[in-house]
Amino acid sequence: xxxxxxxxxxxxxxxxxxxxxxxxxxxxxxxxxxxxxxxxxxxxxxxxxxxxxxxxxxxxxxxxxxxxxxxxxx
Length: 74
Known about the structure:
Keywords: Chaperone, Copper, Copper transport, Ion transport, Metal-binding, Transport. The chain is α+β, with helices and mostly antiparallel strands. It has a single domain, classed as Alpha-Beta Plaits, CATH 3.30.70.100. It is 28% helix and 35% strand. The protein is built from two helices and four strands, in the order βαββαβ. The protein has helices at 15-26, 53-61, and strands spanning 4-10, 31-37, 42-47, 67-72. It has a four-stranded antiparallel beta sheet, with helices on one face. The longest helix has 12 residues, at 15-26. The two termini are 13 Å apart.
């Protein structure tokens, strides 16, 4: 099981914002690693094969944070 890596540029202004993104992603089955940088305004997510890009994107979007860009890394 190789999994996927996704990268998102997300507008986050405080630790509460990044914390909200972290909390919703941790609830997703299939997330194996989350790297959030408030300074760089980025969210990197590593998942199992079963979790697709759109599901991760929509989960982040539900927090109300603006996603400026998103792409599949692997």
